[in-house]
Structures are given as structure tokens and as C-alpha cells.
Amino acid sequence: MARVLGTSIKRREDPALITGRGKYTDDLQAAGMAHAAIVRSPYAHARIRGIDTSAAEALPGVLAVLTARDVAAAGIPGVVPVGWLLPDLKTPAHPMIAADTVRHVGDAVAVVVAEDRYLARDAAERVAVDYEPLDAVADVVAALEDGAPAVHEEAPGNVAFDWEIGDSESVDAAFASAANTVELDLRNNRLIPHAIEPRAVLASFDSSTGEMTIHMTSQNPHVHRLLMTLASLGMPEHKVRIVAPEVGGGFGSKIHHYADEAIVGLCSMKLDRPVKWAATRTETNLTDAHGRDHSTHCALALDADGRITGLRVDTAAAMGAYLSTFAPAVPTYLYGTLMSGQYDIPAIHCHVTGVFTHTAPVDAYRGAGRPEATYVVERLMHLAGEATGLGPVEVRRRNFVPADAFPYQTQVALAYDSGNYGPAMDRALEMIGYDDLRTEQASRRGNGGGKLIGIGFSSYIEACGLAPSAVVGSLGAQAGQWESADVRVHPTASVTVYTGSSSHGQGHETTFSQIVADKLGIAPEAVEVIHGDTDLVQFGMGTYGSRSAAVGGSAIVKSVEKIIEKGKKIAAHLLEASAEDLEFEDGSFRVAGSPDRALALGDVALQAYLAHNYPDDLEPGLSATSFYDPANFTYPFGTHVCVVEVDTETGSIDLLRYAAVDDVGNVINPMIVDGQLHGGLAQGIGQALWENAVYDDSGQLVSGSLMDYAVPKIHNLIPFELDRTTTPCPHNPLGVKGVGEAGAIASPAAVVNAVVDALAPFGISHIDMPLTPEKVWRAVNG
Amino acid sequence: MYPAQFDYRRAGSVDEALGLLQEHEDAKLMAGGHSLIPMMKLRLAQPPVVIDIGRLDELKGIAEAGGSVRVGSLTTHADIAASDVLAAHCPVLAEAAGHIGDAQVRNRGTIGGNIAHADPGSDIPPVLVLLGASVHLQSPSGTRSVAAGDFFQDLLMTDVGEDEILTHVDVPALGAGTGSAYLKFEHPASGYAVVGAAASVTVQNGRCTAAGLVVGGVGAVPTAVDVSSLVGTDLSDDAIAAAASGLDAEDPIGDIFASGDYRVHVGKVYGKRALAAARDRA
Fold first, then answer.
1. Cα angle at B222 between A713 and B178, to 5 degrees?
2. A282 at the B interface (CB within 8 A)?
3. Whether residues A644 and A603 fall in one domain
4. Among the three residues A628, A647, A675, which one is the final residue of a domain in this structure?
5. Domain B57-172 carries which CATH code?
6. Is residue A188 assigned to a domain?
7. Strands B68-72 and A483-489, how do they pair?
8. Is A711's CB within 8 Å of B185's CB?
9. Residues A100-138 as b or e (16 or more Cβ within 10 Å = b)
10. Residue numbers in B near A282 (CB within 8 A)
11. Are A628 and A692 in contact (CB under 8 A)?
12. Domain residues of chain B, as ranges?
């Protein structure tokens, strides 16, 4: 049988999705279903003097109007918890419904349930909330200033945490003796995730059984069940089933547990009816956890040969009004630990202050900490290339961790298991035609035209598949980071896989079926993949952090291996051979050295269920459950090169070329890997050029709609030139590393470096993202 | 979408629509719905009655007669962009219509709805002002026409009376030796014009005999630039740049993407480029 691992079979998910048959949460209907509309604060910070619900309740068809008082009366925990703790982390309570104080525009103050959605919206407009507006602070730097309005009394100075990693003394010493230093103040702009499907939930409580089924937009149903029952609704975990139907993207935003989903659960419990809520685009923009929002000072020290001797980073990272599920981990363990990049840096220190602001919370968004780290390191490397005269290529090459130095222990906790950085850079240079581009750049500069070209590099490192559980636990995670898989071979040798890594667009059903088909020597069509349902799937940690192939896929392999081992015992019994003498290849169990003595997987599977002629010491059946806990992160890497043309008369930027060479280890489905890169690149380029969540000084989100917030559209982008090198991960059975975030991690720095490179004749060394034409024009014109 | 409650009435004729407008206070006319519906979706507009005139065939179509082109108010942007008649007589209008939104928007959105909404970032208004188009309105008491330059009064405000329906625009055909161009600096989120420059120049025997430049997006209404200095010149780049730099807006509009000052600057650059493109096509 032809190998299916490593081939671009078509996504089995797509026929339903592209013909409109995909069932998303808001497509679901339940008998007796009512509709919720959530009343939200129009103020970034205000005291609630009172809430008059009578006008809303008076509308015929309105079933209930609930406020914080009803949450308290329900006797439930009623809070939204944080799932990652840091030393001395301030964890002020995040109530499901604000009781006395609202802390960001969009904070929930009441919920209306009505017979239809129109009525629910009408009634929500009639809920009269008496607010006493208070001073607000939305900016991460302003929030740290003396006298800034306090977001929480429990967090003086708006400091949520103060965290550091590395050795500041050795860094000081490196700077003291440096031949060259470069430094930079930068902002990493706040982003709104913009999953194409806004968040939605359908909660169905049944008082006769005490059970609740919640269909919702979730990247990790089991984690949501845990947080929903434990911290919010106080229900027994086994009485709650969470189902993620089709989920239309998440980019991290659907990892987190939100107040809204818990509020709708409470409504269903109170009314003993199914209740649905689906966010409008405006609502989802106001309440989804946002991404990034850093203010950073960073500096690099180099010796006379252009070798890096030290890196210093000091970051203020916005947390928003409340600590979202994994928020504290993002600018710390997913950021500070990445500061070595692809480079052998002997001294690193990174200090991060987590800052409360009167804004939507900030949490993991595609890349989560790693794009921010890559941006810091790769912007500095660009400046180092200029300052040393080595240029962007040579300064990187000179500092790469050498191929023979792996495993490589960085100064910021991570130990890179594998890597080979030079070839990816070489290939990228070859693809882009680097020397010719530099010649064209020089000629354009020489002829005095208004359209300059620039070439920008980003040599990134990523750490995906957060692991192992014991280590992340010691760092504050309140969850394990393994994954589970139950693989069941049916009597006819078709297979059902139950995976805890649920898909929200990534194509798990296709790729996981390829893994099983390849290992068992059967057709991918003979493998069904079940995910996203806590009643069907044993347990799981979900899909985020580019973990599904490396962790979820490995759990599947582990189960398949157990099945093959058991199958060998059954086959040995049937073939009257010793199990040690059996081999499994191309779907058949064979006696080594006697190719005619063989049984197909189907023969063995059937016998496993008949158990008529069967080993005495073996249980019937042919299935296996595994919980796979990785030994380490995986470390994808690559070099991206962006070429831009800058119109200096207007500041407009045109993308001319984008070449990306990525090393994501072994590849299961090249088409899906390319697709992930395309999407990640679109988002990373979007961050660099267009996307920006802007709050004004009063804390109003002024880019809350798609009329103001620029998500990249297809005509804004160019065909990407992709290639790969392959350095398999040495510690997981598939040799895979993860690809979901690579594009978003690498590309912002590549784009900004390209623009800054184009504008070098103007003495411009930095422009903050997004590089809007006006900013570029103002930089050019002093 | 979940707007506030409203009644929906579909008019079968212009006269019926006018009657419905009389009958229902604060009613809104809907053509393609591309301006009204988003406002209703956000509940920024809560009309008690929506009068749908979208199916009135009498208001659709493009026809040339007597040196001008009549474009019915319900003609879609897609039809305008693809019109052979306009390509022959007023190509800059077709060019601008082709820049509006995306294919779906152009298939639904209409010229009448567009200019009655009068968004400062709309592509059509500066072109109509440039071409000296007239806008025709009908009310129970009769019909009247308004020069495009007078039609746009302020941000989202036009000369359309509460009892009037915009029926069509008449666009004078461009004469021989005239080149025209519309250049758009697009907002990356909304797709509206941050700046849209519409220009025309007429050349006879190598000399400019007429020139026009109108810039949208900078002011609340299209801003006409006095480029008469070009008449008599050979339309050199320098002459064009000098003429376009005359763009002046007292109180330019600005937003988080582009400030007023920057819009004025880009207006001059795009004005210059549009004039140069028009020259090259003349």
C-alpha cells in the first residue's frame, strides 16, 4: 500500500463546510430554546449604582432578566478563573456578571432571556443601568504611571505580576564590555483575534436528570467543562457534557473560559430550558481575549566580531481588566523563554511586568508570546546587522546555534532538542535571489525615484506542544499538557479514533486518519476521527500552541502501537507462532522469515471480538487508550524573507515577495501544512501592516468593527513562496513539530525589517506596527 | 442581523413609493440596502418603516441621449462598471464604480443609494462633481434637478427632501481629446476611499484646453481643486504637480487610520497622479 503519511490528500472536512452543511453552534436548534442577549457596560470603568430591569421584564416574551444579584442567589461560585499562576500573581476576582464595578467596555452587567433573539435584543436595550463613570486607563504604559486609575484595589500600581528570567548580572557585564550595542523601544500592537465564527453557546439544562449539555465554540471542551463546573456554575463535572460542533476558527480566542458562556449556562439552569447566545461581531470584538499589547525596551550587546554577548529585555505586558485563562503564561513562559531565538547567546535577562488595564483581557492569540519574542530578537538582529556592518544575513549566520551543538541549553530555561539553522537561511536566500535584489535596491536608491525596495529577514524559533506536564505544573499551569487518544479497531478492521485534541478548522480528521492509516496499513477512509465531545472522548487538553500533531498525534501512535502489540499476540496464537517472531507490516501480521504465514489486520480484529480461538491470558477486543505526555517542547524554526516596495511620497507599502523556509519536522499532509503557513503569514503580515486594536483615552474601543479594524483581505496579500527543510523532532514518534503558529510568529519582524531596510537612506531604524502609510510618511518626512 | 422592529413595504412604482413616503413619518427608502442595512444592524438607524424601492425597473438602466448619459438611480455599481455606454462616453464613472467594495457590494449597491447616503469616502461623488452631472429628484409636487456640486451638502447630508426620491443622474459625455482617471487610496478595513481623486484633461494640438480635479475623502463633501492653471500648458509633470498642490480643505476629516493633514497630503499626490493618468489617456 502506498504511504499516506506525507501526502496531500484532500481534507475530508471540506465537502460539508464548503457546501454549507457544517453545523456550527448557532446553527443548532433545540426544542423550547430561548435566546439570551447580554447587557454590556458602555463605560471602561464605572460604579454600578443600580439596575432597573422592570421595563425589560415588562416586554411580552421576556422570560428572565438576571444580574449579579441572581448569580449570588443561585449559590454558585460565579467566577471566571485564571488557569496559570505565577509567584505573587494578583488574582482579583472576575465575577461572571459585574456586581459593583465594571472594568472594561463590554463587561457583562445583566442578561436578558426571551422567546426570540430580536426580542432579547430589544429588551436588553430597556435594561436601565445607573452608572457612575470613573476614570479609566487603557494604555499599558499609562497604567503603570503614578496616579493612574486603579483597575483593582488588590493590585497596587495596576501590577498583576513582576517576573524575570535569566541572569541580569552577566548581562550587565556583557554590555559593559561590548564593542557594539543596539537598543530599541517598541510596541507590539494589540490584536483582535477575529475568528470568522463569533463565540456562541447553546446550554441545555434538564432538571429531571440534573444534566446540562453545552454546545459551544471551544478549542478544548474538557478544559471548558472543568472551568465551567468548578469555578462558574458549581455543577458536578460528570453532569455536564460539552460539545464543540464545527468551530469556525479560534486562533486562541476559543481556548479561554469566558463569563458569557457561564452566564448562558446559568440562564438555562434558572429557566430549565435550552438557552442560546451568539455574539455579534461587535460583541466578540469587545469581549474575546485580545492578543499582544506589549511595550518593550530591549538591547543587544555584541563583541568586535559581531557575536552576541548579551540581551536585555524589559516588557510591560497588558493583561486587560481581568486575568484570562492562560494570560499570565503568555508574556512570561511563552515569551521570556524564547529570547535566545536561533542564536547562541551567553547572557540573557528578560523582565516582564503584567499590567491591568481597563480593556478586554489579553491572552493567547496565534503564537502567544512567541511572535512577541521573535519580534524583539529579530528587530534587534536587524539593527545589529546595521551597527556591525555585517548586514542582516551575516550577523545572523555568525550567531546561529551551530548544528553540532544540539541539544542546546539556552540561558532562558528552554533546551532545544534539535535544529539546523544555516540550511533554511541558505535556501531562503536562494529562493529570493538575494544578490540581485540588493543590486536592484542600490540602483533604485541611486536614481532618486520615490519607490524604494527593502529586504527583511526573520529567523525564528518556536516552542510548541507545551510540555511536559510536570514542568509546566512547576511553572504555574493549573492543567496537564498531555493528550489522550482512544483507538478502536472494529471487527471489520475499520477504525474509530477518539482524540482529546479537537479541531476548529485545522483538519485533524484528515491528518489523524493519515497517521492511523499509515501505521495500520489501511486506507484513510477506513478511519473515523471523533473529537470535541466530553461524553464521547475520554479526556483531552484541546488544540492550541501548535500541539495537535506533536502531542495529539503522538498519543494516537502510542495507542496504535499497543494495538499492534496485542494483535501480534492474537496472530501468534492463530498462527501457532511465538509473538516475538511476528512482524506487522502493510496491514499484515507475518511470521518473520515465513512470508506465507500471515494474517491480515481484519482477520486478527475479527478474532479479537469473536474470542473463539483466543489466547487464555488476553482480554477480548482490539482497542487502546493512551495518555501521551511529551518529554519536551518541539522546536520548529525557519527563515522568512520579505521584500517590500515603499512609496515614499505617500508612505504606502506594497508587498513584492515573501519567501518562507520552515522546518516543522516531518510533515503529515503538505497541503495542510502550507495552508497553515498561509493563514499564519496573513495574520502576521496583518499585524505588521494593518491590524490594530485601538482604545481611546477613555477606554472606548475605537477599532471595534471591521470598518475600522483591518483584517487582511485576499487582494492585500501576494502568493507566498514556501519551502521546507526537515529536521525531525527526536523525541516524539512521528518526528513532527507543529506548524499552526509559525507564519504568525516569523512574519511581523520580516515585514518591519523590510520596510526599515527600504528606508535606511532616511536614517529610519524603527517604526511601530502597524506600519500605516501615514506613520511611514511621517517617518520619512521627519 | 437583529435590528429594532420595523415595518417593510415594497413599492411597485415610483408613485407608490412617493405615496408611502408621505404616509409614513420617518420612513427610509431602501435601494440596494448597502448603506441602510448596516446602520440598522447596529441600531444606529431605527426607521419605523422601510420602503423597498429595489425592484423598480423604471429606475434602472444606462442610456446615452443628446450628449449625456442618463444613469437610473437603481443601476448597480457592477452594471456601471461594465457599461459599454459609459466606457465610451464617461469612462471615469465606470472606473470609479469598479473600485467600490467587492463583487457582492457592487452587485447589490446602487448609484442612487450611494450618493443619497453621501459617505465622504464614497467613490462616486467626486466623479459626478468632476463631470458636472445633474441629480434628478421626484416628489409628489414634481421633478427637479440639482448640480452634483450642490447636491452634496455636508457629511452624510444631501439636497434630497423628505418627500423626494432620487430617480437618475445625467452625466455629460466627455468630449474628444479628453482623458480622465479615478485613483483611489483605499482604507484597508472599510474599503472606502481614504482619498479618491477624479481628474480630466482635454488636449488639443498638444495644449491643454480644459482640466478638472475633484478629490473625495478629504472633506465632508467632494473638494474641487482649481486647476485652471493647466489650461494652455503642455501638461508637464511640474505643471500638474503645481496645480494639484492647490488642494485645500479647511477642516479635513480624519480618523485613526489617516489624519486630516495626511489626507490633504495624499489628496495632492493622488490628484497629481490622477491628472497625469488623465493626460496620458487624452
1. 90
2. yes
3. no
4. A628
5. 3.30.465.10
6. no
7. unpaired
8. no
9. ebbbbbbbbbbbbbbeebbbbbbbbebbebebeebebbb
10. 42
11. no
12. 7-52, 57-172, 178-281
Q: State how far residue B186 is from chain A, nearest Cα, in angstroms.
A: 11
In terms of DSSP bridges, do strands A108-114 and A34-40 run parallel, antiparallel, or are they unpaired? antiparallel
Q: Which three cell numbers stand for residue A474?
A: 512547576
Helix axes A742-758, A370-388, angle to 10 degrees: 30
Which secondary-structure segment (H or E) carries A660? strand A652-663
Query: Does domain B178-281 correspond to CATH entry 3.30.390.50?
Result: yes
Amino acid at A67: T
Residue B191, amino acid: G
Residue A728 cell numbers, joined: 525531525
| CA–CA distances in Å: residue A734 to residues A503, A586, A666, A698, A738 | 19, 17, 7, 51, 11
Number of domains in chain A: 3
Element (H or E) spanning A597, and its range? strand A594-600
Is A619 among the domain residues?
yes
When scoring A38, A119, A708, A751 by the number of chain B Cβ atoms within 10 A, the one with the most, hence best to mutate, is A708
Residues of A in contact with B257 (CB under 8 A): 708, 710, 772, 774
CA–CA dist A524, A12 (Å, integer): 10
SS3 (DSSP) at B137: strand
CB A441 within 8 A of CB A454: yes
DSSP string, A684-721: HHHHHHT----B-TTS-BTT-STTTS----GGG----E
For residue A398, give Cα distances in angstroms to A230, A306, B241: 52, 7, 48
Tell how far CA A443 is from the center of its chain.
42
* A560 and A460 fall within a common domain: no
| Residue A757 falls inside a structural domain | yes
Taking residue B172's Cβ as centre, other Cβ atoms within 10 Å add up to 15
Architecture in CATH of B7-52: 2-Layer Sandwich (3.30)
Query: Which domain range does residue A205 map to?
Result: 14-134+196-249+254-287
List chain B pLDDT tens, one digit each, 282 residues.
889 999 999 999 999 999 999 999 999 999 999 999 999 998 999 999 999 999 999 999 999 999 999 999 999 999 999 999 999 999 999 999 999 999 999 999 999 999 999 999 999 999 999 999 999 999 999 999 999 999 999 999 999 999 999 999 999 999 999 999 999 999 999 999 999 999 999 999 999 999 999 999 999 999 999 999 999 999 999 999 999 999 998 899 999 999 999 999 999 999 999 999 999 999
Mutation for A interface: B122, B266, B270, most A CBs within 10 A: B266
Residues A271 and A330 in one domain: no
Q: Same domain, yes or no, for A653 and A580?
A: no
Residue type, B68: S
How many residues in total does chain A contain? Answer: 782
Beta strand A274-278 pairing with A34-40: parallel
Does the ipTM surpass 0.90?
Answer: yes
In CATH, what number is assigned to the domain containing residue A434? 3.30.365.10
Do residues A449 and A319 share a domain? yes
A358 burial (CB, 10 Å; 0-12 / 13-18 / 19+) is buried
CB A456 within 8 A of CB A542: no
Q: Let me know whether A448 and A501 are in one domain.
A: no
- Do A237 and A314 belong to one domain? no
What the block records as the C-alpha cell of A605 is 480484529
Looking at the structure, tell me whether residues A525 and A606 fall in a common domain.
Answer: yes
SS (H, E, C) B36-78: HHHHHHCCCCCCCEEEECCCCHHHCCEEEECCEEEEECCCEHH
Instruction: Give the CATH number for residue A81.
Output: 3.90.1170.50
Are residues A308 and A343 in contact, defined by beta-carbon separation less than 8 angstroms?
Answer: yes
How is residue A494 written as a grid cell? 475499520
Alpha carbons A666 and A733: distance in angstroms, whole number: 10
What is the radius of gyration, based on Cα positions, of chain A?
27
Q: Is residue A180 part of a domain?
A: no
Task: Give the minimum alpha-carbon distance from A711 to chain B in angstroms, rounded to a whole number.
Answer: 7
**In terms of Cα–Cα distance, which of A626, A629, A609 is closest to A618?**
A609
